[in-house]
Design goal:
This protein is an alpha+beta fold. It is built from six helices and ten strands. The strands form three sheets. The chain has a six-stranded mixed beta sheet. A two-stranded parallel ribbon has the order 1-9. The longest helix is centred in the N-terminal third of the chain and has 10 residues.
C-alpha cells in the first residue's frame, strides 16, 4: 500500500520570496533593501510584508516645506574635527529607544537652518519609508567639519545640531503600527498621516527639503 499523503499550500503569512523579487516589488535596489533588513524595519521577506509595503501611499507636499532626513541602518563612523578624531553612531533601528533615535537623528547635518527651523518638523526615512517624525524647536550648536587634501583645508562644512523631540515613530512597518506621543492634536494627526508611508526623492544629501 502506498503511503498516505497530505498536500498543503504554504501559509500566505509565512511564505517568503527572494531578495531579487522583493526589490522588484518595492522598486528599490539591493542597497535600500539591505537597509530595511538590517535596521529591523523589514525583518523578513514574507510575501505579505513585502506586498503590503509595495502598496504604501507616496507622500508629496502641496504647500510648504517638509525636511526629510534619509537614514541608514545602525553603524559607526569615524570623523576628524577641530576637536580631534571622534566616533559616532549613525543610522536608526526599529529597536531603538526614543533617546537613541533622537541622538541619531538630531545632529550633525548640513542644511539651511532657517528652512529646517521654519518647517518645525523633520521626517525620518529609511529607503523611502517614513519611520519617525521629529519636532524641530531650534538649533543647539553649530559644528565645522574641515575637508583636507594634501594636508590643506579645501572646504569647510557647517553643520547643525537641532533642538528636537520625537513626535512619533513606526513600531512595526509592515503592519503600519505607529506610536505618536504629543500634546498638540494637529501635530499628532500630521504624524499619524505621515508615518509608515513612502517619500520619493532624488539622490543627494542626507537631509533634503521636500517642496
Amino acid at each position: 500500500m502506498y503511503p498516505r499523503l497530505n498536500i498543503a499550500q504554504p501559509s500566505a503569512d509565512t511564505a517568503t520570496i527572494s531578495a531579487a523579487l522583493a526589490q522588484r516589488l518595492l522598486g528599490i535596489s539591493d542597497g535600500p533593501l539591505l537597509k530595511l533588513r538590517r535596521s529591523g524595519y523589514l525583518p523578513d521577506l514574507r510575501i505579505t510584508s513585502v506586498t503590503t509595503l509595495a502598496a504604501r501611499p507616496v507622500v508629496s507636499v502641496e504647500r510648504g516645506i517638509l525636511p526629510v532626513l534619509r537614514m541608514g541602518a545602525p553603524r559607526e563612523v569615524v570623523e576628524e574635527t577641530e576637536q580631534g578624531v571622534r566616533t559616532r553612531r549613525v543610522g536608526v533601528g526599529v529597536g531603538y529607544s526614543d533617546s537613541e533615535f533622537l541622538n541619531a537623528t538630531e545632529k550633525w547635518w548640513t542644511a539651511n537652518p532657517d528652512e529646517i527651523c521654519g518647517a518645525g518638523v523633520m521626517a525620518v526615512t529609511i529607503s523611502g519609508f517614513v519611520v519617525g517624525l521629529l519636532q524641530i524647536r531650534g538649533i543647539i550648536a553649530t559644528d565645522r567639519l574641515e575637508h583636507l587634501k594634501n594636508g590643506q583645508v579645501t572646504t569647510v562644512e557647517k553643520r547643525y545640531h537641532f533642538d528636537a523631540t520625537v513626535v512619533g515613530r513606526v513600531v512595526d512597518l509592515p503592519s503600519a503600527d505607529v506610536r505618536v506621543s504629543n500634546d498638540d492634536p494637529d501635530l499628532s494627526a500630521f504624524a499619524t498621516q505621515l508615518l509608515g508611508n513612502r517619500i520619493e526623492s532624488a539622490r543627494g544629501a542626507p537631509l533634503i527639503c521636500l517642496r
